[in-house]
Amino acid sequence: MTARRALAALVVTVAAAVVAGCATVPQQSDVQVLRQGEQAAEQNLSGPIEDDEPLGLVRGFVYRSGSPDDRHAQARRYLSASASDWDDAASLTVLDERFDTVVSPENGTAGPDRMTVRVRGTRLGTVGPGGAFESSPQRVEVDVGVVREGEHWRIDRPPPGVMVRLSDFRSHYRELQAWFVDPVRRMLLPDGHYIRSGRPGELAMDAVDVLLRGPSTGLAGAAVTMFPATARIRSATTDPAAGTASIELTGVSGLSPQDRELLAAQVAQTLGGVGVPRVELLADGGPLVPATPTVSAADQADLVAGPGRAPAFPYVVDGGRVRQLSATGVAAPVAGQAGNGSFDITEAAASARSGRIAVVSRESTGTQRLLTGPLGGELTATPVSGADVRSLSWNGAGDEIWAVVNGRLRRVLVPPSGPPVEGAVDAGRLTPLGRIGDVALAREGGRIAVVADGALLVGPIVPLDDGEVAVGPLRRLRPGDLDDVVSIDWHSADRIVVASDSDRPMSEVSADGLRLDQIPGTNLTAPLGALAAAEGRPLYVTDRTGLWSYSGGEFDAWQQAGGTGAAAQPFYPG
Q1: For the purposes of burial, counting CB atoms within 10 Å of the CB of 191, is it exposed (0-12), middle (13-18) or buried (19 or more)?
Q2: Would you say 182 and 189 are in contact if contact means Cβ atoms under 8 Å apart?
Q3: What beta strand segments (E) does 355-420 contain?
Q4: Helix H or strand E encompassing 211
Q5: 42 φ, ψ to 5°?
Q6: DSSP secondary-structure letter at 311?
Q7: Residue 181 near residue 189 (C-beta atoms within 8 A)
Q8: What is the pLDDT of residue 554?
Q9: Cβ distance 264 to 256 under 8 Å?
Q10: How many whole angstroms from its chain centre is CA 388?
Q11: pLDDT tens, 284-338?
């Protein structure tokens, strides 16, 4: 996210030289724990309280750090003249809602006109120069020096960077779904970032800056940007009323025609999410892609990884067969061997993109075997079997099925023709994490979510040489909030639904860990089991009494889905 000068409402020309530096991510908030009414009163102030004491002064400074306008001009009103060189762009720390200000124990220079104030709180993480949130939860204590100038207190030793409450961060910054490229499949993958809220023209330019910088560390290795290191923006004009933009690039002459199309798709998909549906892309005076000088998100829909819209009702494994729920609550067996009783099925997963299904069959010997085939057709055994086969998940392209087998992650390649074969996967990063309880591949590809010893972790899936892939660095999401996790599923490209055996039974968390929303657990009875989630569809989860659905409707309560038991395994296509 870059601190870019405001673009004019209709037409703005941006110099091409270098993409501007990162802006800190502020918000409006109260440093000490204040009630809502007190917060509202604080937010109406435009500057420091002239007769405030040091603790209140520092609290106000953090409140005002929420506004990034004019290099945090509101926060700078709290500084002494000697602190005018405060480096507000050094870093951005997002704090939990509750934090306080106290006199620092390190108050060695204290006196009637000088004091050190300590800000104490919980850091959720930091926002990097490219606008990506990096989860790093930890208790933090930061000292701020204050001095009396005449009749008033001022801050003369501010810490570098900005500290902002989560609520203020959300008030002043908006989520951006930036799109990058899977280097193997040459498909677009989404990646969450944050840019300053603003007019469409400003949003568009900040969004292009994100693409220039590349994907977040959470997708590092799994995706790349088609913008070469030499790329610069020569000029950019926007017409918010018409919903169009014109961007001219330099430094892209070495791109192949295919790479130019992918770059254009990156821009079109990303800007479509910030209210600019059509973009004219130029390179050194001519169209970037001669055949399509103006691009839109719809033009590149076939380059976007992930499935289509999920069915209205999920599938469910119950009684050894795969069934599909209906509006009447009836779970009718699906066609083919998955539903006709040919196998005693304990778990299943389907791919919307390839139309295939994978099932776990329990044999008379007790061995469990993984099979796959077309949904509604005959199933073929894969090389994978064991005493415990579970947590099936398809990749975004629908040509790989992953499973946890005897506690180890396995990967099976399912080509359009020919038998399934096992594929290499380096899952060494999972080894020290403990027992693997569940895994879920993002439907769009590029990421894996893992439950290990009750903790939720997310990381990239990195392609290696010779068709092998590796699970990249994993980040734990919301320790302390998400513990005793039982099962997970991707609700959307950047949201994960979580079922836990805790006082927070159902939650939804962003893939970067910044946002955590509790889902009401009314009517559910622990322990919880399998769950199913898909964008725009009701949630399903099993508890001690059976299968339940939740639509987030008027009554905010879970409704029981008839005809299935507590052992049911619901799933939407992945």
Answers
A1: buried
A2: yes
A3: 356-362, 368-374, 380-386, 389-394, 400-405, 408-413
A4: helix 200-213
A5: -60, -40
A6: P
A7: yes
A8: 63
A9: no
A10: 31
A11: 889 999 999 999 988 888 888 766 678 899 999 999 999 999 888 778 999 999 9
- Classify residue 183 by burial, with Cβ atoms within 10 Å: 0-12, 13-18, 19+: middle
- Residue 372, by phi and psi: left (phi above 0), alpha (psi -120 to 50) or beta? beta
What pLDDT score does 68 carry? Answer: 86
* CA 328 – CA 313 distance, rounded (Å): 11
Name the residue among 361, 351, 374 with its Cα closest to residue 321: 361
3-state secondary structure (DSSP) of residue 284: coil
Specify the residue for token string 């405001």: 6
State both tokens at 482.
């998400």
Backbone angles phi, psi at 175, to 5 degrees: -75, 140
Is 469 within 8 Å of 428 (Cβ atoms)? Answer: no
In whole angstroms, give the CA distance from residue 320 to residue 437: 22
Rounded distance, CA 14 to CA 237, Å? Answer: 8
Q: What is the per-residue pLDDT across 445-467, written as a single tens digit (0 to 9) for each?
A: 999 999 999 999 999 999 999 89
The pair of three-digit structure tokens given for residue 198, joined into one six-digit string: 């603003």
Specify the DSSP class assigned to residue 223.
B
Mean pLDDT over the full length of the chain: 88
| Cβ atoms of 276 and 238 closer than 8 Å | yes
